[in-house]
Amino acid sequence: MLDQSGSPLTAAATALHEPVLRWYDANARVLPWRQPDAGPWAVMVSEFMLQQTPVNRVLPAYHAWLERWPKPVDLAPEPPGEAVRAWDRLGYPRRALRLHAAAQAIVERHGGEVPDDHDALLALPGVGTYTAAAIASFAFGQRHAVVDTNVRRVLARTLTGVAQPTISPTAADQRLAVTALPADEPTAARWAVASMELGALICTARTPKCGDCPIRDRCAWVLAGNPPYDGPPRRGQTYEGTDRQVRGRLLAVLRAASGAVPKKALDACWHDDVQRERALDGLVADGLVEPLPRARYRLPN
Asked: Could you give the residue numbers annotated as active site?
């Protein structure tokens, strides 16, 4: 429940609700998974796809996925390799396997309907604390702290006055987000998506648009003079030349094939033998690639 202690932190959090919600109503992006007719499965697909992937890359894959598999029951009987194939170049393809496994669990345990119970959501493959809270909030209008990177940054700046949150999520982040939740469910669900949108569009990591922020006059970081970040170095992710790039090259060859692929076709996609073999072994270990007799490979069947 919302802390009713009347502490300064609680009062500061409560003061954010109205201006952020007004801003969201006027400025929110029109996204398909936010539409009233989207449905819980569409919300779930979007949440899996949006993990560490920007909206503009997700949109084409999201539309193609739901056109092919509009309900969990449509995806569940497919081979998992088809989910990996449809994931295309979204990155982190284990998400496709987990979404496929979640669809199977939904069919087996919940009659093909995404459950509205938070604990039941948490029990699905690939659904962690954030994803369960997001689905429960965005699809079912429930009151949960939905804490992604954007929300962590908004709350860190506005309520604690620091430029950036900790590199990894902490229990303190979760407690702060609970403190900031409105008391009633409908408002809390709107706040969850509105605070996330504020972090994505205005309170960005590198170049925050403080002049356009609806809560700049009550943001602890702005009021403190925008002190710079003084924590551990925040290293950006690299891609070129990494095992991630090699894995992507290997999967691209397998996705393009209608069946099994000979090893020599995979060998041709990357010059470094040691790195290529390490990446291929990792794909097999992750269940994304299936080895076959006579040195052939395919997506999991």
From this structure: 47
